[in-house]
Amino acid sequence: MAELDPQEAGQDLERKIEETRQRFKNELLQDSSDKYDSRDVERLQTDDALVEGYLTWRLYVVDDALKMIDESLQWRKEFGVNDLNESVIPRWMFETGAVYLHGYDKEGNKLFWFKVKLHVKDAKTTMDKKKYVAFWLERYAKKEPGMPLTVVFDMADSGLSNIDMDFVKYVINCFKVYYPKFLSKMIIVDMPWIMNAAWKIVKSWLGPEAISKLKFASRSEVQTFIGPEYLPPHMGGTDPFKYSYPPLPDDEFQTPICDNGPIVSEDDAESKEGELESRETLEASFNSEIVTKTKKGWW
C-alpha cells in the first residue's frame, strides 16, 4: 500500500479524530454522562492533541482508542484527578521522597523518580499512593503538555519485600491507558538478580507497544541514558540535589534548552550546594518520623 503524502495523512488524522469524538458522544456518553467528569468530556471535544494521543497509542484503530478513552476518563473521575492537590494527599507521602520529578535524560525528557527501597506494601495506603502518582503526572501534564517523561526505578538497596506488583502494574497502566504517549522510556537501575522473575511479569504487562521502552541498566550503564549532572552519587553521578518537602521540587518547569536539560549557572550551582547541609538535616528528621510510621517506607 502506498504511503499517504503529508497532506493526505493530516486529513486522514482529522477524520479519525472527528470519528472518535462522534462515536464517543453517540456510544459512550449517551445515558452515562455520570461516568465521567464533565471537564474531561469537554477537553476531549476541544483538544485535538488529546484525541490524537489515544489514537496514536492504539495504532489509529478507533474501536481500541474508544476503549482506552472510556477506561481513562472513568479512572480520572474515580480518582478525582482534576481536583488533586497537596491538601488531599497525606503530607508524609510528600515528605518521604519516594516519588518525585527532577532532572532530564540525555534526550531532554523529564525524569520521574521512584525510590523502590522506600516502599512497603500496605493495603491501607494503596489508594493514597496511587493518587499521589496521579498528582505528579497530572501536575506535569498541565505544566508541560505533550512532553514525554522518562521513568526511573531506583532499585538500590531494595529487595523482594519492596516490590508491590499491584502498584507497579498501576504505574504501568498510567502510561498505557491514562496518559498515552507520555512514556519516553522506563529505566530499571541496579535491579537485584533475585527480582528477575518479578520484572519478567512486568514486561508482559507493558505489552508490545511499550516493551521497547523498558531498559535495564547497572550503575555504570545508566549514564548511557542520563548524564552525571542529573544522577545521584550512588549511581555515579554528580547531582547535589536532595529531595525535601516543602516546597515541591521543580515548581518552575521549563523545556530543556540543551541536550542535557536546562543550563545551570555557577551561582545556581553554588546555591544548591549551600542548601545541602540544611536539607540533609531536614531529610534526616523526616526519615526518622517516616520510619516510625511505615517501618521502611511507603510505596
From TrEMBL:
Domain annotation CRAL-TRIO: ranges = 101-243
SUPFAM superfamilies recorded for this chain?
A: CRAL/TRIO domain, CRAL/TRIO N-terminal domain
**How is this protein annotated for GO cellular component?**
endomembrane system; endoplasmic reticulum-endosome membrane contact site
Q: PROSITE patterns recorded for this chain?
A: CRAL_TRIO
- State the residue spans of region: Disordered: 259-279
PANTHER family, per this entry? MOTILE SPERM DOMAIN-CONTAINING PROTEIN 2
Q: What is this protein called?
A: CRAL-TRIO domain-containing protein
Organism annotation: Salarias fasciatus
Name of the gene encoding the protein in the UniProt record: mospd2
